[in-house]
Amino acid sequence: MNGSKSRPDRIASHVRTMPPSGIRDFFDIVSTMKDVISLGIGEPDFVTPWHIRESAIYSLERGITSYTSNLGLLKLRQALAGYVERVFGASYNPANEVLVTVGVSEALDLAMRAILEPGDEVIFHEPCYVSYGPVIAFAYGKPVPIQTDPQGGFVLTAAQVAAAITPRTRAIILNYPNNPTGACLPEAELKAICDLAVKHDLIVIADDIYAELSYDHPHVSAASLPGLKDRTIFLHGFSKAWAMTGFRLGYACGPADLIGAMMKIHQYTMLCAPITSQEAAIEALKHPDQDINGMKAEYQRRRNFIHASFTEMGIPCPRPAGAFYAFPNIAATGMTSKAFAYGLLDEEKVAVVPGTAFGPCGEGYVRCSYATSMDQIKEAMVRFKRFAHKRLAAKA
Amino acid sequence: MDELLKLLKKNALETPEDLAKMLGLPVAAVKARIAEYEKSGVIRGYQAVVNQDQLDINLVTAVIEVKVTPEREGGFNHIAARISKFEEVQSLYLMSGTFDLLIFISGQSLKDVAFFVSDKLATIPGVISTSTHFMLKTYKDHGVLMETEDEYERLKVSP
Ligand SMILES: Cc1ncc(COP(=O)(O)O)c(C=O)c1O
Questions:
Q1: How far is B28 from chain A (nearest CA, A)?
Q2: In this structure, are B26 and B101 located in the same domain?
Q3: Which atom of ligand 1 lies at the shortest distance from residue A178's CA?
Q4: What's the structural domain count of chain B?
Q5: Does residue A245 have its Cβ closer than 6 Å to ligand 1?
């Protein structure tokens, strides 16, 4: 602790008034505890495949340590355009429609800053990734969260979107497969939502970072729908499917005017993404299916296991269709999400994230990440069951 | 390969109950399939993967490359079957390349192994030559690393 006094008056008001992340205080407690089984981790437990790490090392050995073009290495952008065309069915010109960024995180920030006038509204669905609201607000936009319906499997509906649109609406963010619910968006609903975007001239921001981890149906991106490419900013990266979170590498694809505007901010604020990570990404795109399918098969087995375990212990849990999160409903214990998460941590040393960290409609739910080993998941389920049953019995 | 076999190859101790949950199958179906695999001989046994370097025992392992003359009828199979009956022989493979059979053998001492080669193996009719290599250290066996690396710890909670 230092002695300097906190001076809120010198912090910009839109930053000062931003509440701290709901995950942060929980993280602080968990990190002081020993022998915790954590289902609270939003990143793969796999290490980046060796051939990708090896190519990063090799690039360092060859002395490749410089800046790159602001847009990113051309060779990488070409490989990305090829991958996006094959996997997502949308074609982009590597010369001016692809921008390599420091994770989807940076790309999202760039998109907001590039398109929002102060007070412009951005629609997004909750429960959602913790950054959307703050990133919009930091760009002087107005976050317009829509509470999705648990009964509908946390799937955003076109009717909800229609009701939220105002003359100030500029964009809508879609994130399916979803963090934290694991929900996927049925194609018909996606189309209906995108029709609204066309009708009201909105930009669609497709956070497709979990696209490869869709277990029951192939993922359909907004970018691939007819007529949507010109108004879609497609966001994707290497963190999840390739287990490369620490490489901090993502990218945005979109019409040249939007990518150009994002690039303007990127060149002055970030200059470029790290070259070592870009070199690794070029390697990652050489045999992507091989790398991804092995991890995906393992996630799918864990998904099956964790869903069957919750069902067996009588805790309702929508069957996650994608990503690596299960979102069980613990409301029957009579506890709030937060009380449940703290109690489970305290009594059983299992960390899960309260659903409310992802939006108010996450109340009654907790997020359980299955990006951890099967052995850990098995033990966590034994402890979860013991804790939940004790609370259910106490309430009965 | 079938998902069930993949899982069992990775960990033979998985219970039918857990396997059923992972595969989304009824427990009875998993048990029946395992029984079928055992009966048909697809699954031939279950063993622990042991790091012998960690044990204080005398065990010498060697790999022997063997050149043989294939027989008019039966090719290499007859002689391979004969060699594989020796208890010392842990594994035996037919290979392409400059030799024909590859044998993994273990014994109590160098002498044991040398005796096996000179007395049992080299004297089998059809064996033309042998080349024996002793193993010094095992780094990885059956897909399992023999040393536990310190695991890098991820943040315990992240968005
Ligand atoms: C939905 C979603 N979008 C974006 C990100 C950030 O990813 P990146 O590592 O590419 O910045 C995450 C990470 O958890 C996420 O869950």
A1: 15
A2: no
A3: 1
A4: 2
A5: yes
